[in-house]
Amino acid sequence: MKVRVDEDKCCGFAACLSAAPEVFEIDRDQIAVVLIDGEIPEHLHACTRDAADACPTDAIIIEE
Question: How far is CA 23 from CA 1, 57, 62, in A?
Answer without folding.
Answer: 12, 18, 12
